[in-house]
Structures are given as C-alpha cells and as structure tokens.
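Quick note —
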Amino acid sequence: MEVKTKTKKEELVEIRKKNFLPTAFLYYKNPLQLVKGKGSYVYDEKGTEYLDAIGGIVCNSVGHNHPEIQEALIKMIRNDEIQHTSTVYLNQHPADLVTKLISEAPDGINKCSFTNSGSEANELAFMAARHTTGETIVVNLRHGYHGGTSGTLSNCGHHTWRFKAQPVSSVTSALEPYCYRCPFNQKPESCHLECAKNVETTIQTSTHGKIAAFIAEPVMGIGGVITPRKEYFHEVTKIVHKYGGKYISDEVQSGAGRCGEDFLLTKSLKIDADIITMAKGFGNGAPIGAVLMKEDIANTLSGKLYFNTFGGDPYQAMQALKTMEIIEAEDLIKNTKLMGEYLRKGLEELMNEYKIIGDVRGRGLLIGIELVKDRNTKEHAIKECAELMELCKDRGLLIGKGGLSGNVIRLAPALSINKKQVDFMLNVFNESLKILSVNKS
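Predicted structure written out below.
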C-alpha cells in the first residue's frame, strides 16, 4: 500500500498546530506559504504570483526587497559591520536616522527613542506621559488598536484582541469618531463633532478630572480604517490639554507617507500632538519603531533609566533610513496620493454597482471597504468579507480585513504601486464581487 507523503505546506500547518499558540491565526482556508517577494508581488512555494495589496501587514512602504535596501544590507554584512550595539555604544546608523526623522516631525517635537515595534513605542509613550504628568489614566477610543503588549491591549477597543489578564484600572474609553456608524446617529451635514466633545464628557465622568494622556490613530487601521474628520483632532487636542493630558498620535499604520501627505499624517492634519509613535512602514518591514516627543516631556525623564535591547540597532536603523530616502528620492508620497485617489475612485464606482459595499474610506493608500448585508440596516457582512478575501486570493490578489466584526476589507499596498497594478486590483474586485453577488442571491 502506497503511503502518501505530506507536502511541505502540510508539515508547516502541522508544526503550527502542534507548537504555536492557538492565537496564531492564518488567512485563507488553504493557507498560503509565501517564500519570495519582489516589489509589489509575493510568490508561494509553487511560484504563483500575487499582488500584495496589504503590504505584508501594512509594513512594505517601498516594496519587498527593494534593490537599494538589499545592496545596503549586503554591504554591511560584507564589511563585517556590527549587528548589535544597543544605545549604550555610539553608532552612525541610528544617529543618521534620528536626524532625518526629526526633520520630518512637526515643529516642537525634537526628541526620539527607537524600539522594536509599535507596541513597544506606545508602551514608552504611555510611560512618558504618566511620568511627566504625574497622572495615570489614559483615555483611548472604542475600536482603537495600539499593539499586543499588556499596556497597549488595556487600551484596545476590541473584545476579540483583549484577554482576561488586561489591566483596565487606569484607562477609560471615549466613543469612536466613526462617521459611517456614528454613535450619535448624525450625518455629515448635521455633525457638530459630538464624538470629539465626548472625550471631555468621558474625562468628566470617568476620571477624577485629570488625565495622563489621550491616544488615537489618525486613521484607525485595525478598527476598519475609520477616518475621522480633520476638525475632530483639533477639538480633541484642546480638550486633552485642558485636562492636563498629553496627546499621543499613534502613526504605526498611518505614518511613513502612507496617507499621501507628509511623512507623518499628524503634521499634515496639524494635530497638536505631544508624542508621536510609529513602526511598520517606517522600516519597510524591519523590526523597528520610534517614539517622538516634545523636549519638555523628554526632560522629565532625566535621571531615570530606560533601555531597549534592540532599539536602534544598526541593521534596522539603516533599513529605516533607506526607506525614508527611497520614499523621498522616488517621490512616493506624491505617487501615494495619486494612486490612492485613483483607487478610491475605482472602488466608489464599484460601490455604485454592488450594494454589498456600504462605505469606502481612508487616506492615501490606507483604504477600507466596509461590507454590509443591507445598506439601510448596515448589518455586518462578516461571512461575505471572508469569502471575498478567498475569491481575490484565487485571482492573485492578497488583501486584509479588519473592523470589530471583521467585515472591512483593508488595503495598504506598497507606496510605489502603479496604475496598471491598481487596475488589476479593481478588475479582481469586480470579478470577485460579481461572483459573491451571484452566490448571495
């Protein structure tokens, strides 16, 4: 009797089931084994090509394996450059990176610390805000997401991500600025920024009248690319500062030019932030994050010790600087704006044809497509969202999803994406939505 040998993919799935935590989820019914990436494309073990429209996980700013980053990495290895120094030694790479990064920051923000991730960046932001104010309470937003560590998950607005162990005694949540599903049942024409004013109500009723910080993403990624109005942030910063808090702008997903304006969306929206955090696209997928803050906050940390073993290591710092240089040299922020507008327009045209699309939103190349079963009731199309992902994958397009109910398609392709690739995305969506509509009926 012939014994069927397991494929490499089957072995990998078995290892994951046996040894990974059950929290390690996989996209797709038939999981993808990705082995190669180049530019906007990734390839599985069989050589099948896919357009990566989610950028890893909102990480690939300049595309997979950019030749300039490859060349710089190879050069460092061949020159036996030190791989790990930490900040207790001097090294040129983090010094060059911090100089470049500060030049892109809003006026008044001129201090920086590097971390391994966005989670760690936000943890440091909380610590700095609490230390400098002497207060402990952080106000977050429902539907917000700031990382997978204890402190960040305690400020998470999704029950699916939070665990029983998350401490919640020093946090409180304000209502979300979710225009499509306004918690105040307002329309754009009748909106009086009730969501922004709710931050003050929250402070007045859920704290002792003083706070350490308020944290928000300029575009709420995991929450389903919720995109508040510009005026929202101006109102909220006044409220936060009125009650003694520091405003933390979480740019882990919206930063690095992804929104098609400045390198940091905080600067474009003129948010009077005290602290800005970033990661993901900042290093084009390299494990590096950063915390930027005003000098007066940084000065209060003097005399204390803070240390991050891998924060600002040479290889990661080099990749982040190269990413910034490539974005500038290839004029990718301008391309992001143009391609983002073109993609949004195409998706809005599809929305006119397919009623399952309830909303198209976002900034630049950080775009969300909310799927609903009925436009009047706005019932979440959860199953349909998962099916759409499968249909797109089968046609060579990788996309992400988010939202509290998992009914929002998330798009975050490389900032270098071109018109031909956007057309491919739109064609795949059209084909897939057509099949989905037939299946639904």
